[in-house]
């Protein structure tokens, strides 16, 4: 990582934050997101073919454990990105401190996984406890690399950030297929996941000597404020993104739940593409040195880009839902076609609210991520109380996400007006 606070090293110039730069960064991240998603989907298909059902269930559990850990990693990345963008004079000290915190969290998880591996294997009925040990070994590296990904994001080094995602996916997919093919089963898949963290870390980490003055002051009040906002936003994300899938397994029989899950997979594609826009605009909005006019222009551009992504998806599933369902999942999933339009609509509304929530974290407007969390609570309450069919479930999400998007837009607009009055 380049020196940011050495007394004899000049401060680096602030990267361009204009329209062309934001579009280019988003294009890079979007292309990477598509590639990574396709690779992960292919890995799931390959593991289903290579492993017996019981071991495939174990492998799927391992992937879900990583997704749960990703919430912690995403929080660390957002905090790191925000602090790098807003406190460049303390960048090296903040990075070192956050990396130590991330490593400590990872070590606690490692000890828990190692000490409790046999208990977890018994409770979760997995074929081997060693999968938890192997995954635990990789999590300290995973959490620490999230901090360094945040550094790249905060510095707007988007190409290298995208490269880290690509390398992680490539090593995971190739390694898992090769090791499972060689007969190592679910443990081999877990080894590949851990190796993917190591490979990605090699992309994002820098020599310690290049980190500059690590003795600088860490602005703890700012760190805590960003961590709180990021945690609120990401908990809301988990509720909205995953709650309906869990409830569908509770409410519906396995076949109907499977059809619902296929519709959800299409909706998730919209969210992940929109998240690439969030990653590109987050450090831009966070920069205190950026004029208010430029920041608003970047925000409006990002909102427009998410709206276009959602709009294209909506038009596609409105006119060609049967084709989309058949091409992606096959004729046995034809029953999911009617769910695609409302699900994509709900996801588009959520993507807009989530964008404003992330920008609220970037600019210190805690009310906006709180709205996203409240939207997750509202959706959960509606689904538990009223959802009795897949169609009801998706339209209730449309209602909840309409309220959430309007609320996020309202609080963002109100904060903009207060800022104008303050100026």
UniProtKB/TrEMBL annotation:
Transmembrane segments: 21-41, 61-79, 99-121, 127-148, 160-180, 186-206, 218-240, 260-286, 298-320, 340-359, 366-387, 393-413
Topology class, membrane: Multi-pass membrane protein
Superkingdom of origin organism: Bacteria
Keyword Transmembrane: yes
Keyword vocabulary terms for this entry: Cell membrane, Membrane, Transmembrane, Transmembrane helix
Predominant place of localization: membrane
Localization (cell): Cell membrane
Alphabetical list of InterPro entries matching this protein: Poly_Biosynth_Transport (IPR050833), Polysacc_synth (IPR002797)
Gene Ontology annotations for the cellular component aspect, listed alphabetically: plasma membrane
Entry-linked PANTHER family: PSMA PROTEIN, PST FAMILY PREDICTED COLANIC ACID TRANSPORTER
Designated name of the protein: O-antigen/teichoic acid export membrane protein
Species: Microbacterium halimionae
């Amino acid at each position: 990582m380049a020196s940011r606070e050495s007394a004899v090293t000049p401060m680096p110039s602030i990267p361009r934050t204009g329209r062309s730069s934001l579009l280019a960064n988003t294009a890079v991240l979007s292309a990477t997101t598509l590639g990574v998603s396709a690779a992960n989907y292919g890995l799931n298909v390959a593991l289903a073919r290579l492993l017996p059902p019981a071991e495939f269930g174990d492998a799927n559990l391992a992937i879900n454990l990583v997704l749960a850990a990703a919430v912690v990693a995403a929080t660390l990345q957002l905090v790191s990105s925000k602090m790098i963008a807003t406190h460049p004079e303390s960048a090296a000290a903040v990075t070192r401190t956050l990396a130590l915190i991330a490593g400590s969290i990872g070590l606690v998880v490692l000890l828990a996984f190692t000490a409790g591996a046999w208990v977890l294997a018994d409770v979760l009925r997995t074929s081997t406890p060693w999968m938890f040990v192997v995954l635990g070994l990789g999590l300290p590296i995973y959490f620490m690399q999230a901090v360094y990904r945040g550094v790249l994001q905060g510095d707007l080094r988007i190409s290298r950030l995208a490269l880290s995602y690509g390398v992680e996916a490539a090593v995971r997919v190739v390694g898992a297929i090769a090791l499972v093919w060689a007969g190592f089963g679910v443990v081999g898949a877990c080894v590949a996941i851990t190796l993917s963290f190591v490979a990605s870390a090699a992309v994002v980490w820098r020599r310690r000597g290049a980190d500059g003055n690590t003795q600088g002051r860490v602005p703890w009040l700012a760190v805590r404020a960003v961590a709180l906002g990021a945690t609120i936003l990401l908990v809301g994300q988990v509720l909205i993104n995953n709650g309906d899938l869990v409830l569908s397994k509770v409410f519906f029989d396995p076949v109907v739940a499977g059809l619902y899950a296929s519709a959800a997979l299409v909706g998730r594609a919209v969210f992940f593409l929109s998240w690439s826009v969030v990653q590109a605009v987050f450090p831009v909005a966070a920069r205190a040195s950026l004029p208010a006019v430029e920041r608003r222009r970047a925000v409006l551009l990002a909102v427009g880009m998410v709206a276009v992504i959602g709009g294209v998806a909506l038009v596609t599933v409105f006119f060609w839902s049967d084709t989309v369902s058949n091409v992606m999942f096959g004729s046995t999933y034809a029953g999911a076609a009617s769910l695609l339009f409302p699900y994509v609509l709900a996801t588009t509304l959520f993507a807009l609210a989530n964008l404003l929530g992330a920008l609220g974290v970037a600019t210190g407007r805690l009310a906006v991520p709180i709205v996203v969390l409240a939207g997750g609570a509202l959706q959960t309450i509606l689904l538990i109380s009223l959802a009795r069919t897949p169609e009801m479930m998706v339209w209730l999400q449309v209602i909840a996400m309409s309220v959430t998007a309007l609320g996020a837009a309202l609080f963002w607009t109100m904060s903009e007006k207060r800022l104008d009055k303050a100026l």
